[in-house]
UniProtKB/TrEMBL annotation:
Domain Subtilisin-like protease fibronectin type-III, first and last residues per copy: 428-522
Gene3D superfamilies registered for this protein in UniProt: 2.60.40.2310, 3.50.30.30, Peptidase S8/S53 domain (3.40.50.200)
Entries under SUPFAM superfamilies matching the protein: Subtilisin-like
Listed InterPro entries: Peptidase_S8/S53_dom (IPR000209), Peptidase_S8/S53_dom_sf (IPR036852), Peptidase_S8_Ser-AS (IPR023828), SBT (IPR045051), Subtilisin-like_FN3 (IPR041469)
Pfam families named among the record's database cross-references: fn3_6, Peptidase_S8
Domain Peptidase S8/S53 intervals: 7-348
Record keywords: Hydrolase, Protease, Serine protease, Signal
Keyword Cytoplasm in record: no
Name of this chain's protein: Subtilisin-like protease
Gene Ontology BP terms: proteolysis
Family according to the record: Belongs to the peptidase S8 family.
GO molecular function: serine-type endopeptidase activity
PROSITE patterns documented for this protein: SUBTILASE, SUBTILASE_SER
Length: 530
Protein backbone atom coordinates (compact mmCIF):
# COMPACT_ATOMS: atom_id res chain seq x y z
CA UNK A 1 0.00 0.00 0.00
CA UNK A 2 2.86 2.37 0.79
CA UNK A 3 4.28 1.85 -2.69
CA UNK A 4 0.86 2.26 -4.33
CA UNK A 5 0.22 5.54 -2.53
CA UNK A 6 3.58 6.95 -3.51
CA UNK A 7 3.08 5.87 -7.10
CA UNK A 8 -0.33 7.56 -7.15
CA UNK A 9 1.24 10.81 -5.98
CA UNK A 10 4.03 10.52 -8.55
CA UNK A 11 1.48 9.95 -11.31
CA UNK A 12 -0.54 13.01 -10.29
CA UNK A 13 -3.83 11.25 -9.54
CA UNK A 14 -6.64 13.35 -8.08
CA UNK A 15 -8.55 10.71 -6.11
CA UNK A 16 -7.55 7.59 -4.16
CA UNK A 17 -10.46 5.20 -3.64
CA UNK A 18 -9.44 2.69 -0.98
CA UNK A 19 -11.75 -0.26 -0.46
CA UNK A 20 -9.19 -1.58 1.98
CA UNK A 21 -7.96 -0.93 5.50
CA UNK A 22 -6.32 -2.51 8.54
CA UNK A 23 -7.80 -5.52 10.30
CA UNK A 24 -7.52 -3.89 13.73
CA UNK A 25 -6.55 -0.62 15.41
CA UNK A 26 -2.78 -0.29 14.90
CA UNK A 27 -0.43 -0.42 17.87
CA UNK A 28 1.62 2.62 18.79
CA UNK A 29 1.10 6.00 20.40
CA UNK A 30 -1.71 6.96 18.01
CA UNK A 31 -3.76 5.22 15.33
CA UNK A 32 -3.24 8.29 13.16
CA UNK A 33 0.52 7.66 13.07
CA UNK A 34 0.39 4.17 11.54
CA UNK A 35 2.30 3.76 8.30
CA UNK A 36 -0.77 3.74 6.04
CA UNK A 37 -2.37 6.84 7.56
CA UNK A 38 0.89 8.78 7.40
CA UNK A 39 1.27 7.85 3.74
CA UNK A 40 -2.30 9.04 3.16
CA UNK A 41 -1.46 12.30 4.93
CA UNK A 42 1.45 12.81 2.54
CA UNK A 43 -0.85 12.05 -0.38
CA UNK A 44 -3.27 14.65 0.96
CA UNK A 45 -0.39 17.13 1.22
CA UNK A 46 0.24 16.48 -2.50
CA UNK A 47 -3.37 17.36 -3.31
CA UNK A 48 -4.87 13.85 -3.51
CA UNK A 49 -8.38 13.34 -2.14
CA UNK A 50 -8.32 10.11 -0.11
CA UNK A 51 -11.59 8.17 0.26
CA UNK A 52 -11.55 5.00 2.37
CA UNK A 53 -13.99 2.30 3.47
CA UNK A 54 -14.75 2.55 7.17
CA UNK A 55 -14.82 -1.25 7.54
CA UNK A 56 -17.38 -4.05 7.85
CA UNK A 57 -17.14 -4.65 11.59
CA UNK A 58 -20.52 -3.17 12.55
CA UNK A 59 -22.75 -2.71 14.30
CA UNK A 60 -20.45 -2.75 17.33
CA UNK A 61 -19.30 0.53 18.85
CA UNK A 62 -15.83 1.86 17.85
CA UNK A 63 -15.49 -0.70 15.08
CA UNK A 64 -14.27 1.89 12.54
CA UNK A 65 -10.99 1.04 10.83
CA UNK A 66 -10.49 4.34 9.01
CA UNK A 67 -9.21 6.80 11.56
CA UNK A 68 -7.68 10.03 10.35
CA UNK A 69 -9.32 13.41 9.72
CA UNK A 70 -7.49 13.83 6.39
CA UNK A 71 -9.29 10.72 5.09
CA UNK A 72 -12.94 10.77 3.98
CA UNK A 73 -14.26 7.61 5.65
CA UNK A 74 -17.35 5.98 4.15
CA UNK A 75 -20.16 4.00 5.78
CA UNK A 76 -22.50 1.71 3.81
CA UNK A 77 -26.24 1.96 3.42
CA UNK A 78 -29.01 0.03 1.78
CA UNK A 79 -30.69 1.41 -1.32
CA UNK A 80 -34.33 1.58 -2.35
CA UNK A 81 -33.76 -1.09 -5.02
CA UNK A 82 -35.35 -4.43 -4.20
CA UNK A 83 -35.67 -7.79 -5.92
CA UNK A 84 -39.09 -8.91 -4.81
CA UNK A 85 -40.48 -12.29 -5.63
CA UNK A 86 -43.62 -14.30 -4.89
CA UNK A 87 -44.54 -17.86 -4.10
CA UNK A 88 -47.90 -18.57 -5.71
CA UNK A 89 -49.94 -21.41 -4.17
CA UNK A 90 -52.52 -23.42 -6.08
CA UNK A 91 -55.08 -22.11 -3.58
CA UNK A 92 -54.72 -18.75 -5.31
CA UNK A 93 -52.78 -17.16 -2.45
CA UNK A 94 -49.52 -15.35 -3.16
CA UNK A 95 -46.81 -15.06 -0.50
CA UNK A 96 -44.37 -12.16 -0.83
CA UNK A 97 -40.65 -12.73 -0.51
CA UNK A 98 -37.34 -11.80 -2.10
CA UNK A 99 -34.58 -13.38 -4.13
CA UNK A 100 -32.76 -12.66 -7.38
CA UNK A 101 -33.96 -15.95 -8.82
CA UNK A 102 -35.21 -17.50 -12.06
CA UNK A 103 -38.81 -18.77 -12.00
CA UNK A 104 -39.93 -22.34 -11.89
CA UNK A 105 -40.34 -23.69 -15.41
CA UNK A 106 -43.63 -23.03 -17.17
CA UNK A 107 -46.93 -21.94 -15.64
CA UNK A 108 -47.61 -25.20 -13.80
CA UNK A 109 -47.53 -25.89 -10.07
CA UNK A 110 -45.03 -28.14 -8.32
CA UNK A 111 -45.45 -30.26 -5.16
CA UNK A 112 -44.21 -28.59 -1.98
CA UNK A 113 -42.41 -30.56 0.75
CA UNK A 114 -40.72 -29.68 4.00
CA UNK A 115 -37.07 -30.74 4.11
CA UNK A 116 -37.62 -32.92 7.18
CA UNK A 117 -40.31 -34.90 5.34
CA UNK A 118 -37.92 -36.01 2.60
CA UNK A 119 -34.85 -36.59 4.78
CA UNK A 120 -33.55 -39.83 6.21
CA UNK A 121 -34.39 -40.18 9.88
CA UNK A 122 -31.80 -42.78 10.79
CA UNK A 123 -28.16 -43.51 10.10
CA UNK A 124 -25.30 -41.07 10.74
CA UNK A 125 -27.34 -37.88 10.21
CA UNK A 126 -30.65 -36.68 11.65
CA UNK A 127 -33.47 -35.22 9.57
CA UNK A 128 -32.43 -31.69 8.61
CA UNK A 129 -34.85 -28.79 8.39
CA UNK A 130 -32.32 -26.28 7.03
CA UNK A 131 -31.18 -28.24 3.91
CA UNK A 132 -27.48 -27.69 4.62
CA UNK A 133 -26.60 -31.40 4.43
CA UNK A 134 -27.14 -32.68 0.88
CA UNK A 135 -26.67 -36.30 2.03
CA UNK A 136 -29.74 -36.13 4.23
CA UNK A 137 -32.19 -35.95 1.32
CA UNK A 138 -33.89 -39.01 -0.12
CA UNK A 139 -33.51 -38.10 -3.82
CA UNK A 140 -36.62 -39.91 -5.15
CA UNK A 141 -38.75 -37.98 -2.66
CA UNK A 142 -37.10 -34.64 -3.54
CA UNK A 143 -37.39 -35.09 -7.31
CA UNK A 144 -39.41 -32.31 -8.95
CA UNK A 145 -40.52 -30.66 -5.70
CA UNK A 146 -40.17 -27.26 -4.04
CA UNK A 147 -38.40 -27.87 -0.73
CA UNK A 148 -39.14 -25.78 2.36
CA UNK A 149 -35.86 -25.09 4.19
CA UNK A 150 -36.30 -23.68 7.69
CA UNK A 151 -34.28 -21.02 9.42
CA UNK A 152 -34.62 -19.65 12.96
CA UNK A 153 -32.51 -16.48 12.90
CA UNK A 154 -31.27 -13.91 10.41
CA UNK A 155 -27.67 -14.91 11.16
CA UNK A 156 -28.36 -18.14 9.26
CA UNK A 157 -29.02 -16.20 6.04
CA UNK A 158 -25.43 -15.89 4.87
CA UNK A 159 -24.43 -16.12 1.22
CA UNK A 160 -22.47 -19.29 2.03
CA UNK A 161 -25.46 -21.01 3.61
CA UNK A 162 -27.82 -20.00 0.82
CA UNK A 163 -25.37 -21.23 -1.83
CA UNK A 164 -25.02 -24.54 0.05
CA UNK A 165 -28.80 -24.92 0.20
CA UNK A 166 -29.21 -24.17 -3.49
CA UNK A 167 -26.54 -26.72 -4.41
CA UNK A 168 -27.98 -29.37 -2.08
CA UNK A 169 -31.50 -28.96 -3.44
CA UNK A 170 -30.30 -29.03 -7.02
CA UNK A 171 -28.17 -32.15 -6.39
CA UNK A 172 -31.20 -33.91 -4.91
CA UNK A 173 -33.18 -33.25 -8.10
CA UNK A 174 -35.62 -30.76 -6.56
CA UNK A 175 -37.16 -28.01 -8.66
CA UNK A 176 -36.36 -25.23 -6.18
CA UNK A 177 -36.49 -24.19 -2.54
CA UNK A 178 -38.35 -21.91 -0.15
CA UNK A 179 -36.54 -20.37 2.82
CA UNK A 180 -39.13 -19.98 5.58
CA UNK A 181 -39.00 -19.21 9.28
CA UNK A 182 -39.25 -22.32 11.42
CA UNK A 183 -42.69 -23.12 12.79
CA UNK A 184 -41.49 -22.39 16.32
CA UNK A 185 -40.00 -18.98 15.47
CA UNK A 186 -41.50 -15.94 17.19
CA UNK A 187 -42.95 -12.93 15.41
CA UNK A 188 -40.21 -10.61 14.14
CA UNK A 189 -39.60 -7.73 11.71
CA UNK A 190 -39.52 -8.68 8.01
CA UNK A 191 -36.16 -9.61 6.55
CA UNK A 192 -35.09 -8.86 2.98
CA UNK A 193 -32.06 -10.10 1.12
CA UNK A 194 -30.83 -9.62 -2.40
CA UNK A 195 -30.06 -13.33 -2.73
CA UNK A 196 -28.55 -14.34 -6.05
CA UNK A 197 -29.65 -17.85 -6.96
CA UNK A 198 -28.89 -20.33 -9.72
CA UNK A 199 -32.06 -22.34 -9.10
CA UNK A 200 -35.61 -21.13 -8.42
CA UNK A 201 -35.68 -19.99 -4.82
CA UNK A 202 -37.35 -17.46 -2.55
CA UNK A 203 -36.84 -16.07 0.95
CA UNK A 204 -40.02 -15.60 2.93
CA UNK A 205 -38.62 -12.95 5.22
CA UNK A 206 -41.76 -12.17 7.21
CA UNK A 207 -43.21 -14.24 10.01
CA UNK A 208 -46.70 -13.79 8.53
CA UNK A 209 -45.72 -15.24 5.13
CA UNK A 210 -43.87 -18.15 6.73
CA UNK A 211 -46.80 -18.93 9.04
CA UNK A 212 -49.23 -18.84 6.10
CA UNK A 213 -47.03 -21.29 4.18
CA UNK A 214 -46.82 -23.73 7.09
CA UNK A 215 -50.58 -23.61 7.66
CA UNK A 216 -51.20 -24.27 3.97
CA UNK A 217 -48.58 -27.06 3.89
CA UNK A 218 -49.90 -28.81 6.99
CA UNK A 219 -53.49 -28.70 5.73
CA UNK A 220 -52.51 -30.15 2.33
CA UNK A 221 -50.11 -32.88 3.46
CA UNK A 222 -51.65 -36.27 4.23
CA UNK A 223 -49.92 -38.17 7.06
CA UNK A 224 -50.19 -41.61 8.58
CA UNK A 225 -50.63 -42.57 12.22
CA UNK A 226 -46.91 -42.18 12.91
CA UNK A 227 -46.65 -38.81 11.18
CA UNK A 228 -45.12 -40.17 7.97
CA UNK A 229 -46.21 -38.43 4.79
CA UNK A 230 -48.64 -40.42 2.67
CA UNK A 231 -49.07 -37.81 -0.07
CA UNK A 232 -47.91 -34.29 -0.86
CA UNK A 233 -50.93 -32.24 -1.96
CA UNK A 234 -49.49 -28.73 -1.41
CA UNK A 235 -48.62 -27.13 -4.75
CA UNK A 236 -46.88 -23.89 -5.72
CA UNK A 237 -44.65 -22.11 -8.15
CA UNK A 238 -41.97 -19.41 -7.80
CA UNK A 239 -42.19 -16.34 -10.01
CA UNK A 240 -39.29 -14.53 -11.70
CA UNK A 241 -37.42 -12.45 -9.12
CA UNK A 242 -34.85 -10.89 -11.44
CA UNK A 243 -36.65 -7.61 -12.06
CA UNK A 244 -35.67 -4.67 -9.83
CA UNK A 245 -38.22 -2.35 -8.27
CA UNK A 246 -37.53 0.99 -6.60
CA UNK A 247 -39.42 1.88 -3.45
CA UNK A 248 -38.34 5.48 -2.90
CA UNK A 249 -37.51 4.71 0.74
CA UNK A 250 -34.57 6.55 2.36
CA UNK A 251 -31.31 4.65 2.89
CA UNK A 252 -30.70 2.65 6.06
CA UNK A 253 -27.28 2.12 7.65
CA UNK A 254 -26.28 -1.48 6.90
CA UNK A 255 -25.77 -3.68 9.96
CA UNK A 256 -22.20 -4.61 8.94
CA UNK A 257 -21.06 -1.01 8.39
CA UNK A 258 -18.49 -0.13 11.06
CA UNK A 259 -19.53 2.39 13.69
CA UNK A 260 -17.91 5.19 15.65
CA UNK A 261 -16.75 6.68 17.85
CA UNK A 262 -13.26 6.95 16.40
CA UNK A 263 -10.35 6.00 18.63
CA UNK A 264 -6.93 7.52 19.31
CA UNK A 265 -5.13 4.24 19.85
CA UNK A 266 -5.36 0.49 20.40
CA UNK A 267 -6.36 1.17 24.01
CA UNK A 268 -9.68 2.31 22.45
CA UNK A 269 -9.44 5.81 23.88
CA UNK A 270 -12.07 7.76 21.97
CA UNK A 271 -10.95 10.61 19.72
CA UNK A 272 -12.12 14.14 18.95
CA UNK A 273 -12.77 13.02 15.38
CA UNK A 274 -16.07 12.12 13.72
CA UNK A 275 -16.02 8.76 11.97
CA UNK A 276 -17.58 7.68 9.68
CA UNK A 277 -17.72 10.93 7.69
CA UNK A 278 -20.48 10.14 5.20
CA UNK A 279 -22.63 7.25 4.03
CA UNK A 280 -23.17 5.92 0.51
CA UNK A 281 -24.92 2.96 -1.15
CA UNK A 282 -23.06 -0.23 -0.28
CA UNK A 283 -25.60 -3.04 -0.05
CA UNK A 284 -26.31 -5.32 -3.03
CA UNK A 285 -24.28 -3.22 -5.47
CA UNK A 286 -23.65 -4.36 -9.03
CA UNK A 287 -19.85 -4.31 -9.28
CA UNK A 288 -17.01 -5.35 -11.53
CA UNK A 289 -15.90 -8.87 -10.64
CA UNK A 290 -13.27 -11.41 -11.58
CA UNK A 291 -14.66 -14.10 -13.85
CA UNK A 292 -12.37 -16.58 -12.06
CA UNK A 293 -13.81 -15.88 -8.59
CA UNK A 294 -15.72 -18.58 -6.73
CA UNK A 295 -17.17 -16.04 -4.29
CA UNK A 296 -20.69 -16.24 -5.70
CA UNK A 297 -21.58 -19.21 -7.91
CA UNK A 298 -24.44 -17.29 -9.51
CA UNK A 299 -21.88 -14.98 -11.14
CA UNK A 300 -19.20 -17.56 -11.90
CA UNK A 301 -17.41 -16.76 -15.17
CA UNK A 302 -19.14 -13.36 -15.26
CA UNK A 303 -17.36 -10.00 -15.11
CA UNK A 304 -19.91 -8.54 -12.72
CA UNK A 305 -21.51 -9.54 -9.43
CA UNK A 306 -23.80 -8.25 -6.73
CA UNK A 307 -21.58 -7.32 -3.78
CA UNK A 308 -22.19 -5.70 -0.39
CA UNK A 309 -19.85 -3.82 1.94
CA UNK A 310 -18.30 -0.47 2.71
CA UNK A 311 -15.89 -1.35 -0.10
CA UNK A 312 -18.83 -0.85 -2.46
CA UNK A 313 -19.88 2.43 -0.82
CA UNK A 314 -16.42 3.97 -1.12
CA UNK A 315 -16.28 4.23 -4.95
CA UNK A 316 -19.61 6.09 -4.90
CA UNK A 317 -18.04 8.81 -2.78
CA UNK A 318 -14.83 8.77 -4.82
CA UNK A 319 -16.97 9.39 -7.90
CA UNK A 320 -18.59 12.41 -6.28
CA UNK A 321 -15.15 13.70 -5.30
CA UNK A 322 -14.04 13.33 -8.93
CA UNK A 323 -17.04 15.36 -10.11
CA UNK A 324 -16.18 18.11 -7.64
CA UNK A 325 -12.52 18.14 -8.75
CA UNK A 326 -13.65 18.35 -12.36
CA UNK A 327 -15.73 21.45 -11.55
CA UNK A 328 -13.25 22.91 -9.06
CA UNK A 329 -9.75 21.62 -9.89
CA UNK A 330 -8.18 24.19 -7.55
CA UNK A 331 -9.96 22.89 -4.44
CA UNK A 332 -7.90 21.18 -1.75
CA UNK A 333 -8.71 17.65 -0.51
CA UNK A 334 -10.17 19.18 2.67
CA UNK A 335 -12.43 21.46 0.60
CA UNK A 336 -13.70 18.51 -1.45
CA UNK A 337 -14.39 16.44 1.67
CA UNK A 338 -16.10 19.43 3.30
CA UNK A 339 -18.41 19.91 0.31
CA UNK A 340 -19.49 16.27 0.46
CA UNK A 341 -20.00 16.27 4.22
CA UNK A 342 -21.84 19.56 4.76
CA UNK A 343 -24.37 18.82 2.02
CA UNK A 344 -25.18 15.25 3.08
CA UNK A 345 -28.72 14.27 4.09
CA UNK A 346 -29.48 13.16 7.64
CA UNK A 347 -33.26 12.88 7.36
CA UNK A 348 -35.22 9.67 7.02
CA UNK A 349 -38.94 9.33 6.34
CA UNK A 350 -40.58 12.76 6.57
CA UNK A 351 -38.71 14.70 9.22
CA UNK A 352 -37.67 11.56 11.09
CA UNK A 353 -34.08 10.42 11.53
CA UNK A 354 -32.15 8.05 9.36
CA UNK A 355 -32.36 4.48 10.62
CA UNK A 356 -29.68 1.87 11.26
CA UNK A 357 -29.84 -1.91 11.23
CA UNK A 358 -28.93 -3.82 14.35
CA UNK A 359 -27.30 -7.24 14.15
CA UNK A 360 -30.73 -8.92 14.45
CA UNK A 361 -32.19 -6.81 11.64
CA UNK A 362 -34.17 -4.46 13.89
CA UNK A 363 -34.14 -0.79 12.91
CA UNK A 364 -33.24 1.97 15.37
CA UNK A 365 -32.69 5.71 15.07
CA UNK A 366 -29.19 6.28 13.67
CA UNK A 367 -26.59 8.77 14.91
CA UNK A 368 -23.54 10.44 13.35
CA UNK A 369 -21.50 7.51 14.65
CA UNK A 370 -23.47 5.37 12.18
CA UNK A 371 -23.54 7.66 9.14
CA UNK A 372 -21.23 10.63 9.81
CA UNK A 373 -22.75 13.74 8.28
CA UNK A 374 -25.35 11.69 6.42
CA UNK A 375 -26.12 10.16 3.04
CA UNK A 376 -24.23 11.79 0.18
CA UNK A 377 -26.04 14.27 -2.06
CA UNK A 378 -23.90 14.64 -5.22
CA UNK A 379 -25.90 17.51 -6.71
CA UNK A 380 -25.66 19.69 -3.60
CA UNK A 381 -22.01 18.75 -3.08
CA UNK A 382 -21.11 20.50 -6.35
CA UNK A 383 -22.38 23.78 -4.90
CA UNK A 384 -21.90 23.72 -1.10
CA UNK A 385 -21.84 27.49 -0.55
CA UNK A 386 -19.21 27.28 2.21
CA UNK A 387 -16.24 25.02 2.83
CA UNK A 388 -14.06 24.17 5.83
CA UNK A 389 -10.50 24.13 4.53
CA UNK A 390 -7.35 22.69 6.10
CA UNK A 391 -3.72 22.32 5.10
CA UNK A 392 -0.90 19.94 5.96
CA UNK A 393 0.29 22.15 8.84
CA UNK A 394 -3.16 21.97 10.43
CA UNK A 395 -3.09 18.18 10.35
CA UNK A 396 0.36 18.23 11.93
CA UNK A 397 -0.99 20.49 14.69
CA UNK A 398 -3.83 18.01 15.17
CA UNK A 399 -1.33 15.16 15.55
CA UNK A 400 0.60 17.16 18.11
CA UNK A 401 -2.61 17.48 20.16
CA UNK A 402 -3.38 13.75 20.18
CA UNK A 403 -2.93 12.23 23.67
CA UNK A 404 0.19 10.06 23.75
CA UNK A 405 2.06 11.89 21.00
CA UNK A 406 4.82 14.48 21.22
CA UNK A 407 6.78 16.52 18.72
CA UNK A 408 9.44 13.83 18.29
CA UNK A 409 6.94 11.05 17.48
CA UNK A 410 5.09 13.30 15.05
CA UNK A 411 8.31 14.41 13.35
CA UNK A 412 9.57 10.83 13.04
CA UNK A 413 6.32 9.67 11.46
CA UNK A 414 5.18 12.63 9.36
CA UNK A 415 8.45 14.43 8.74
CA UNK A 416 7.33 17.72 10.31
CA UNK A 417 7.32 19.15 13.80
CA UNK A 418 4.55 20.95 15.66
CA UNK A 419 3.77 24.36 14.09
CA UNK A 420 3.24 25.97 17.50
CA UNK A 421 4.57 25.17 20.94
CA UNK A 422 1.14 25.54 22.52
CA UNK A 423 -0.67 22.22 22.76
CA UNK A 424 -4.17 22.62 21.34
CA UNK A 425 -7.26 20.41 21.40
CA UNK A 426 -7.78 17.90 18.59
CA UNK A 427 -11.23 19.45 18.19
CA UNK A 428 -9.53 22.67 17.02
CA UNK A 429 -8.89 21.14 13.59
CA UNK A 430 -10.98 23.03 11.03
CA UNK A 431 -13.20 20.10 10.09
CA UNK A 432 -16.91 20.27 9.09
CA UNK A 433 -17.95 18.56 12.33
CA UNK A 434 -17.33 19.00 16.05
CA UNK A 435 -16.54 16.01 18.26
CA UNK A 436 -15.58 16.37 21.92
CA UNK A 437 -14.72 12.98 23.39
CA UNK A 438 -14.39 14.24 26.98
CA UNK A 439 -16.08 17.53 27.80
CA UNK A 440 -15.13 18.86 31.22
CA UNK A 441 -17.09 22.01 31.95
CA UNK A 442 -16.83 23.85 28.64
CA UNK A 443 -14.80 24.10 25.48
CA UNK A 444 -14.39 26.81 22.88
CA UNK A 445 -14.17 25.55 19.31
CA UNK A 446 -13.38 27.77 16.34
CA UNK A 447 -14.17 27.09 12.72
CA UNK A 448 -13.17 29.00 9.58
CA UNK A 449 -15.67 28.99 6.72
CA UNK A 450 -14.77 30.13 3.23
CA UNK A 451 -17.33 31.10 0.61
CA UNK A 452 -17.12 29.23 -2.69
CA UNK A 453 -20.40 30.71 -3.92
CA UNK A 454 -20.66 33.00 -6.93
CA UNK A 455 -22.21 35.89 -5.00
CA UNK A 456 -22.41 37.41 -1.55
CA UNK A 457 -24.70 35.52 0.79
CA UNK A 458 -26.11 36.13 4.26
CA UNK A 459 -26.24 33.17 6.63
CA UNK A 460 -28.34 32.61 9.75
CA UNK A 461 -27.15 30.12 12.37
CA UNK A 462 -29.46 27.64 14.10
CA UNK A 463 -28.44 25.08 16.70
CA UNK A 464 -29.94 21.75 17.74
CA UNK A 465 -28.28 21.18 21.07
CA UNK A 466 -27.17 17.74 22.26
CA UNK A 467 -29.03 16.59 25.40
CA UNK A 468 -27.41 18.03 28.52
CA UNK A 469 -25.18 20.40 26.53
CA UNK A 470 -25.58 24.12 25.79
CA UNK A 471 -24.20 25.32 22.47
CA UNK A 472 -23.87 28.91 21.30
CA UNK A 473 -22.43 30.10 18.01
CA UNK A 474 -21.16 33.58 17.32
CA UNK A 475 -21.82 35.43 15.17
CA UNK A 476 -25.40 34.15 14.89
CA UNK A 477 -25.71 35.87 11.52
CA UNK A 478 -23.09 36.88 9.01
CA UNK A 479 -22.63 37.97 5.43
CA UNK A 480 -19.82 36.56 3.35
CA UNK A 481 -18.51 37.43 -0.11
CA UNK A 482 -17.03 35.04 -2.68
CA UNK A 483 -13.61 33.72 -1.53
CA UNK A 484 -13.97 35.49 1.83
CA UNK A 485 -13.25 33.62 5.08
CA UNK A 486 -15.15 34.13 8.33
CA UNK A 487 -14.45 32.80 11.82
CA UNK A 488 -17.18 31.08 13.83
CA UNK A 489 -16.87 30.53 17.57
CA UNK A 490 -18.76 27.54 18.95
CA UNK A 491 -19.02 27.41 22.74
CA UNK A 492 -19.92 23.99 24.15
CA UNK A 493 -20.96 23.93 27.82
CA UNK A 494 -21.76 20.84 29.89
CA UNK A 495 -25.06 21.04 31.74
CA UNK A 496 -25.65 17.41 32.65
CA UNK A 497 -23.55 14.23 32.42
CA UNK A 498 -25.51 11.73 30.29
CA UNK A 499 -22.99 8.83 30.57
CA UNK A 500 -22.98 8.48 26.82
CA UNK A 501 -22.37 10.45 23.64
CA UNK A 502 -25.07 12.96 22.76
CA UNK A 503 -25.63 14.48 19.34
CA UNK A 504 -26.80 17.72 17.79
CA UNK A 505 -25.93 20.00 14.91
CA UNK A 506 -25.19 23.54 13.84
CA UNK A 507 -26.93 24.59 10.63
CA UNK A 508 -25.94 27.60 8.52
CA UNK A 509 -28.80 28.66 6.23
CA UNK A 510 -27.98 31.07 3.44
CA UNK A 511 -30.41 33.45 1.75
CA UNK A 512 -29.26 32.02 -1.61
CA UNK A 513 -30.55 28.56 -0.61
CA UNK A 514 -27.26 27.06 0.58
CA UNK A 515 -27.56 24.90 3.70
CA UNK A 516 -24.39 23.91 5.56
CA UNK A 517 -24.69 21.26 8.30
CA UNK A 518 -22.11 20.70 11.06
CA UNK A 519 -22.74 17.56 13.19
CA UNK A 520 -22.02 17.74 16.93
CA UNK A 521 -20.99 14.73 19.02
CA UNK A 522 -20.19 15.29 22.71
CA UNK A 523 -19.42 13.11 25.71
CA UNK A 524 -19.81 15.01 28.96
CA UNK A 525 -17.22 13.78 31.47
CA UNK A 526 -17.93 16.46 34.06
CA UNK A 527 -20.03 19.58 34.42
CA UNK A 528 -17.43 21.19 36.69
CA UNK A 529 -15.67 24.19 35.21
CA UNK A 530 -11.88 24.05 35.21
Amino acid sequence: MESCNRKAVEDGVDILSLSIGPSAVPLGPAAFLNILDVELLLATKAGVVVVQAVGNGGPGSSSVLSFSPWVLSVAASTTDRKYNNSLVLDSGDSLAGSGLSPPTEGDGFYPITAAEDISASNGSFPPLKNCLNPDSFIPPMAEGKLVICSYTSDSFLTLTNVATIANAVKAAGATGFILALDRAAASRPPKEMALSLLVPGILLGSWEASRALWEYYDSHTMRGMDGEVLSFEAMGRILDGRGAIFTGKPPVVASYSSRGPDVNNAMMQTADVLKPNVMAPGNAIWAAWSSKSDGDLYFKEQEFAMVSGTSMATPHVAGVAALIKQNHPEWSPAAVASAIMTTANDAGVGTGPLLAQRANGDLVAATPFDYGSGAINPTRALDPGLIFDAEFKHYIQFLCAVPGTDEDSVRRSAGAGCPTAQREWCSDLNSPSVTVASLVGSRKVERRVTSVAAETEKYAVTVREPAGVAVTVSPSEFGISPNETKMLRIDVVAKEAMNDYVFGEVVLRGDKKHIVRIPLAVYVSSTLML
